[in-house]
Amino acid sequence: MLEDRSYMREPEFRTGSPYLMLIVVFCVNLAVFIFSQIHIAYGTFPWIVHLSLDPEDLKQGHVWQLFTFQFLHFGRWHFVFNMLALYIFGRPVIESIGNKHFTIVYLVSGFAGGLLQAALGLIFPAVFGGGVVGASAGVFGIIAVFATLEPDREIMWFFILRMKAKVMLWIASGIAVFYILVPAEPGVAHAAHLGGIIAAFLYIRNGFHHRDFSLRFHPMRNRARRRQLVKAATIKPGFWKTKGSAIPKAEQVEPEEFISREVDPILDKISAHGIQSLTPREKQILEAARSKMDKR
Questions:
Q1: Burial level of 258, CB count in 10 A (0-12/13-18/19+)?
Q2: Domain 2-210, second-level architecture
Q3: Closest C-alpha among 270, 234, 223, 214 to residue 8
């Protein structure tokens, strides 16, 4: 099988569990939650009060709070619901974009959500001021990734309402916007939720999940390597059929132009996520490239 070959495997986090970073994120949240509960009861860990996100602390240069607040929770139900949502949506997201991009999206969404919440807290301290904790911004980012990649996939919202993922995302975004404009629900950082959703949506729509940011330093990234990948990724002609975008014919363009324009992005994706991550259209393009190379 092609997926068993070393150069077709995802380069990051392939030892151990395929959901390694989901487990790591959960364990870090659990550890910090336990420490915070001990601190509440006995005051054992005084440093933990400096991990929540406070706009006034940011003004003093405590920028680490934009990351650390993501792993703190107010209480057990706050923790349980966030981790449950992370488990439900995190698994299919990792299967789609891999451990590395899952981790990036989770942290960047949390950072963006915290930044938006803190900015509003500085501008409107009476309404949005005060400390903020919770993984909700990162979790909403993961949900946004899921809904962007699988918009028509049906889910059970709160285990009660059946709806498409894109509808759920629009509802969640609408609720966040409403309570930002009409801040009548205390104790919930709706701006952080919205910031996480926006950051994750932009991450996927701009195709960052297809990029391997370490490839620029990879010694095997050269034309010979690309030819090897194209020849190895054999796909039966005509098996994958898609509607919509036409598949460019390799005979209509120069080989170097075809490789650069059509094949290079696909090979980057294979290197980052494995050949199983390709769409039917991408597989057809790769087959066209392989056929052209076989004739040379």
A1: buried
A2: Up-down Bundle (1.20)
A3: 270
